[in-house]
Design goal:
35% of the residues lie in helices and 14% in strands. By secondary structure, the protein is α/β, with parallel strands linked by helices.
Length: 311
């Protein structure tokens, strides 16, 4: 029987479905208290461990129950300080069939114009002919400290975006939770005085902004991973799961566990190897292809453009 380590996890929709392949696991959430408790209890009881995080094709509406979960029995994907199963999959590399599947997933992601959340319209303001995109994050986000970053990392990121692109506007995308969940961002007002800085604070879908950016600057934001899916140059000032593989320009030293990898290795690890999905229509397990197709169809229904990812 699955053993969740707090009441909220016990009530997580589809928990048994997500963990159908590890029905005796002790379950915790990432690097939060429940995750630390799960590691201790699993060792004590000599039971399998399942540390959970939201998947990268999470849901349509932002406040909806997650339709995708990352499951890891070693660590947490965003914690660069220690190993994780996702990191191991990337480091080992994937075979030809898996790489081909990863390329299909990238194409479906692009065709569907999707993101982790998919309810918001695209940014409809005028965009400069050339610009760089900077991603803020919510203050206290565990992926920042676990990604070996801090407040100074955001200051360095913004300064680098300005210095390395002296002729381009710098667009800063504010994290949607800052707008809807009464949280704070890392980029403070006193950092926003430069005349080339422009704030994108409408909670818009990121795809249009990513597609046309000449470069994307992040600390540990998932926006950096999505930028790689759109073949954008990415500069990292922390160590997210997709950094340290030669795919990004990194400000930090690469952990010794990482080396060279292909985008296909990272995509397969993130979307397939460690991810579980449920189909919102019937609550049954489904594959990444179906999850992406569903999100694309929902965006098409809401915003009126044709979905292109049916499989």
């Amino acid at each position: 029987m699955i053993l969740p380590t707090n009441r909220r996890l016990a009530k997580l929709p589809y928990l048994k479905t997500f963990l159908a392949d590890c029905p005796n696991a002790v379950v915790g959430w990432g690097r939060k208290l429940s995750g630390r408790r799960a590691e201790w209890v699993a060792r004590l009881l000599r039971r399998p461990l399942a540390l959970l995080e939201d998947g990268f094709v999470r849901s349509f509406e932002r406040g909806a129950a997650t339709r995708s979960i990352i499951v890891d029995d070693l660590g947490v994907y965003y914690d660069a300080r220690s190993r994780s199963r996702m990191e191991q999959v990337i480091a080992q590399g994937v075979g030809d069939a898996q790489a081909e599947r990863a390329r299909f997933l990238i194409a479906a992601w692009q065709a569907g114009g999707i993101s982790k959340y998919n309810h918001a319209p695209e940014y409809d303001g005028e965009l400069p002919n050339s610009y760089v995109l900077v991603a803020d994050q919510t203050y206290g986000d565990l992926s920042v400290s676990a990604g070996m970053a801090e407040q100074a990392s955001f200051e360095a990121m913004l300064q680098a975006a300005l210095d390395e692109n002296p002729n381009d506007p710098v667009l800063i995308k504010i994290h949607p939770d800052v707008l809807t969940h009464q949280t704070w961002g890392w980029i403070s007002e006193d950092m926003l005085t430069h005349p080339r800085i422009r704030i994108i604070g409408d909670g818009s879908h990121p795809v249009r902004l990513l597609k046309h950016a000449s470069a994307v600057y992040v600390v540990t934001s998932l926006i950096g991973f999505e930028a790689l899916l759109w073949n954008r140059p990415v500069r990292c000032f922390g160590m997210p799961f997709y950094a340290g593989w030669g795919l990004t320009k990194d400000a930090l030293p690469t952990p010794h566990r990482r080396g060279q990898a292909r985008l296909e290795d990272v995509v397969y690890a993130a979307f397939v190897a460690q991810a579980r999905y449920v189909d919102p229509r019937d609550g049954a397990l489904c594959q990444a292809e179906q999850a992406i197709s569903y999100m694309a169809e929902q965006r098409a229904l809401k915003f009126g453009f044709p979905a292109q990812t049916s499989v």
